[in-house]
Amino acid sequence: MGLMMKNVKTLALAATAVAAISGNAFAADRTDLHGSDYKWMQFNAMYSIGEKPDNPATGDQHNYLEMEFGGRSGVFDLYGYVDVFNLANQSSSNGDKNPGSGTSKLFMKFAPRVSIDALTGKDLSFGPVQEVYFSTLFNWDGLNGEGVNSTFWGVGADVNVPWLGKTGMNLYGYYDMNAKEWNGYQFSANWFKPFYFFDNKSFLSFQGYIDYQFGADEDKTAFVPKTSNGGNIFFGLYWHSDRYALGYGLKGFKDVYLLEDGAGALALESTGWSHYLSATYKF
């Protein structure tokens, strides 16, 4: 418990330092707790080329359907998605989700946050910080046992960043549910910036995110060796209408999921660039 409390204090101090940049705060009005509630859901038909990590022997391309959702209800803020890979269960020479490959058919990210402002009834905004949160993040795939079972706990804020506008920032401690141990930290940020509007009210947006892990224990003797830091960054250019969206994303990886690039028996590629194509229907 002492180590956990030390981690939480470290996260709180670091999050304050990250958020303390020059600018003006735009505090949320919490006189009506549910006055700014909203929710959204959309389905994205996706195709990925070069996604990491990948095994050079099996390929690096696949299609998938993504159900993406989010919203706000009182003290709770939520973002998440569920991916279903290789919808037609096809086999191809460059497919990394082929039948019989042992890979999972599913992946889920679930990221609930609790507004400390709304919970306490106090305006905690300062400088560019609009609202402060207790933040969590869960990553799961469809495998039992040694599949992806990771969870992150920390603090976050909505920060007004020049040009980008409101940007979600979170600093977490990482807990490995398979190993049952805390192992390092993760900084995450996400943004959605409409920057060009057409006469028919459709628009272009620059959207993306950063996930960066650091301070983890290295393990050079593992079957797939682990590094102390790594992550990914996504840059997306999208066209949006009220009901549809089309987009292209460029994603960069550096020892993603802390897997050392090209090391170990499998020599997995965990560093490089990938491309994503998407078509969206909004509900």
Automatic annotation (TrEMBL):
It is found in: Cell outer membrane. InterPro entries: Channel_Tsx (IPR003055), Channel_Tsx-like (IPR018013), Channel_Tsx-like_sf (IPR036777). Transmembrane segments: none annotated. This is Nucleoside-specific channel-forming tsx. Residues 1-27 form the signal peptide. The keyword Signal applies. Belongs to the nucleoside-specific channel-forming outer membrane porin (Tsx) (TC 1.B.10) family. Its main location: membrane. Keywords: Cell outer membrane, Membrane, Signal. The keyword Ribosomal protein does not apply.
